[in-house]
UniProtKB/TrEMBL annotation:
Residues 36-241 form the SGNH hydrolase-type esterase domain. This is Lipolytic protein G-D-S-L family. Keywords: Signal. It comes from the Bacteria. InterPro entries: SGNH_hydro, SGNH_hydro_sf. The keyword Flavoprotein does not apply. It comes from Paenibacillus terricola. Residues 1-25 form the signal peptide. The keyword Secreted does not apply.
Amino acid sequence: MLKKLLSVMMVTILAASMFATSAFAKSDNARRSLVALGDSITYGYNLGKDNSEPSQYAFPFLMAQVAKLKVTNLAVPKLTSSQLLDLVKNDKGYRQDLKHADYVTLSIGNNDLLAAVSGATVNGTLDVAQLQASLVTTVLPGILGNVKNTIAEIRSLTDAPIVVYNIYNPYQVSNQLMHTLTNQLLTQLVNNNLGALVQSLAAADKCNTLVLADAYTAFGENQLLYVRQNDIHPTIEGQKLLAEIGEVALGMKK
């Protein structure tokens, strides 16, 4: 009798445990997923105790709080557009995460531009003509081609909405030379072409869910508030703003 009672109790406990595990898994799986692709901006660089892992203040996590999303932040500091394309095409982990994405954020190209600035700087002096020439002939075409191919690769894996961020001016207004020059280059060369690319791809996107988040306009001339001093990365307020424009672009927030 005792053995029979114990047996019934064990079956009951096991069944309850399996039900609870199944219910938890179902609840967890029911959460929509946001996969974030990008560099140190998406990573939330310099916002935590150290940079060993993405900061919870990074904009993908802030977006998740509003929409109650599960976030997979795949951003890598110092990542270039060609390196991201390689990861999306060849990294099994990236591809698997993208297959299960309900939303995708893409912010890339910043390090390509910073490398161009560095390459055109000799003995602390920026050669503006050399910078413009390199942007026109190699750097910008490279960014645009890599972004286009990255989006195509993402779309081959998921029908999820994709939001592409353009590039904000990271230089403080007090750094008049670099701030003014960067504004000119971003408006007349970089962001206008990036915007045109996204618009063209969006028109041909069968999923009709490819949109642009205008970080440049959102940051405007408020680098003092949105960009860390002696740094190029967003402050927490800057990350909040990036989250907000991403939410609006994806229709999460009106």
